[in-house]
TrEMBL record:
Organism listed in the record: Actinomadura vinacea
Membrane spanning stretches: 47-69, 81-102, 130-154, 166-190, 196-215, 227-248, 260-283
Keyword set includes Chaperone: no
Keyword Transmembrane helix attached: yes
Protein name, per record: ABC transporter permease
Keywords (A to Z) from UniProt: Membrane, Transmembrane, Transmembrane helix
Protein origin, superkingdom: Bacteria
């Protein structure tokens, strides 16, 4: 019988401090957040996200400039209506960047390599969701902050009320970011090809918006305003706007708003269900990919 021999070829054991699970999650979060804006990647990967950031900032800067000249409060855009008004730009950001975060590892079959380290499937999913939500929050909160700072610089009256409206709109931006990130990542995770992922996310937003607008239009023609309001629960931007209006006291930016008080509570519950459901679906998706 042959005997086995272990040869010492010079490998050195790691004797440093074990950084652990929290460090791995933080590293995954930072890596995905940088990827959402193309940082650390070729220049062409930065064009789309930063172009969309610039487009988001333009109306805010223009609104502040007009107010500085005219001194008419109505010329300053409402904080809570900024995201619903520019929802097309936000949807494009989700559609173009969610596949970058969700589908590249699946396309190149490298997911098992991540799970060979001390990181769980849920940690992997939460890091991606947090990174995508942070990227969206930065996209939406930056122009709202420009509006608020611009108003302060130009000495807008009732600054205390504007501070309250600004903080309320930031809460709305957080909820927008969580809901949109959840939807975008789930769709992108099941379309490994980036082009298909972009088209699928855009199709989801377009289909739900078109369907809801059609139902609301027909309901208003029949003076059924309650139905028009409840229909808003079936499209993500209207859904979060209902929470802003009914629970945070913001002014309505949508065609129909579900009646209070049940409308706001139900909308918030649906937002929570969307986020939790997306987390569960992504968990199963990456767990299956990690075993293949």
């Amino acid at each position: 019988m042959s005997t086995s021999t272990i040869h010492d070829i010079g490998y050195r054991h790691y004797e440093g401090r074990r950084l652990g699970r929290a460090y791995v999650m933080r590293s995954l979060y930072v890596h995905n957040l940088r990827a959402a804006y193309g940082l650390g990647r070729p220049a062409r990967a930065k064009v789309m996200p930063f172009l969309l950031v610039a487009i988001m900032l333009l109306p805010a800067a223009g609104s502040v400039a007009v107010y500085a000249i005219s001194k008419e409060a109505d010329t300053l855009l409402r904080y809570s209506s900024y995201a619903p008004t520019l929802q097309v730009i936000i949807a494009i950001f989700v559609a173009t960047q969610a596949p970058v975060l969700a589908s590249r590892e699946l396309r190149f079959h490298v997911v098992p390599m991540y799970f060979s380290r001390p990181v769980g499937h849920l940690d992997f999913v939460l890091a991606k969701q947090a990174a995508m939500a942070t990227a969206l929050l930065a996209l939406m909160a930056a122009p709202v902050t420009v509006l608020y700072v611009g108003g302060l610089v130009t000495r807008i009256p009732h600054s205390g009320q504007h501070l309250q409206d600004y903080l309320t709109s930031l809460l709305g931006c957080v909820l927008f970011a969580l809901v949109l990130a959840a939807i975008g990542l789930v769709v992108a995770a099941f379309t490994p090809r980036r082009g298909f992922g972009v088209a699928a996310v855009i199709a989801i937003f377009m289909f739900t918006s078109t369907f809801v607008l059609t139902v609301q239009g027909l309901a208003e023609m029949r003076t059924n305003y309650s139905l028009a309001g409840w229909a808003g629960l079936f499209t993500p931007f209207n859904l979060v706007d209902i929470v802003q209006v009914r629970l945070l006291g913001a002014k309505s930016s949508s065609v129909g708003i579900a009646p209070a008080p049940l409308g706001g509570v139900l909308a918030l519950a649906l937002c929570a269900a969307l986020i939790a459901g997306a987390t569960a679906i992504l968990y199963r998706r990456y767990r299956k990919a990690g075993l293949s």
